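>> received
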Amino acid sequence: MNCRKCKVDIPDESKFCLFCGAKQVQEKRKALKRANGTGTVYKLQGRRKRPWVASKNKTIIGYYETKTAALEALNRLTGRSLDERYNMVFADVFEAWKLEHYKELTKSGRTQYDISFQIFSPLHKKKFRELRTADFQAVIDPHMKKTHSTVSKYKQLITQMSKWAIREELITTNFAAFVKLPENVKKEKEIFSDTDIEKLEADGSETAKIILMLIYTGMRIGELFSLPLEDYHDTYVVGGEKTDAGRNRVIPIRPEGRGYFSYFATQATGALLLSGFTGDKVVANFRRRNYYPLLDKLDIDRKSPHATRHTYASRARKAGMPPEILQKILGHADYNTTANIYVHTDVDELIRAVETA
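>> returned
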């Protein structure tokens, strides 16, 4: 073989060149020892996805796929106290997390997270990096009889906090993601029956007229109460809210409901179609002081104002309205929303479908 340095021919397997003395075998460099107090990196035995461990002051910082990633984690800790960061308790993590997250939330959203935080009061003073799925589950279990959406909010809080903690390298696993929630059993949405609609027609009050206006257009209650008078055009209105597909859409008025729209148009005292309504014009107050009391008076089972929208969709589908038209009227970007949530099939319709198949 040839010498690595002077290229002279030398015996095979020579460790040194006989002529220039150059070493022929390049030894692997040993990694430099980290300075005291800066932590250490070592590899666990066996087949593991993240075999490399970063540790400092006998505290495991995290587990990593590569040695480089583990070293980088330690380097990011340079000059930072473990007591300050890695010993953060649940309440500390919540306060740090919400400084970022609350900026993007509405007042209602912040309130919901504040309530969820109080639910986890048994964990407030515990180190976040020591919490596991069982700890979170033990707190949530007593609340399992609440609605699925409520309990989901509790899990959402700890999941978001855990994601923040992973980003900040307090933890390496989102144990909150494994918390189990009660089964989400979706109830069939209620709609106004033909008998209910007849009672409303016969009542003739302004509140009844508004309910029928919703039933005969499929509008959301907020859309109707905020509809400008100038956007009313006898047989249709132009309005909408919530999504790009829902805003500024043409909403036809069924013939049965046109008289009610005309009534409020002539009674209007301001810029809004319902400005002349003698009841409460704030949606929340209308529901409480006008809507539900009228349903009770007419012996109609209580259902939310949104049931008027479900009623419109179901009646339209039964009448054979093309799906794409119904989707546009309701202001949905995806017909799956229309079909899966707003369209209802009654028993008689199912039986007729089977008998004619």
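>> The chain is about 45% helix and 5% strand.
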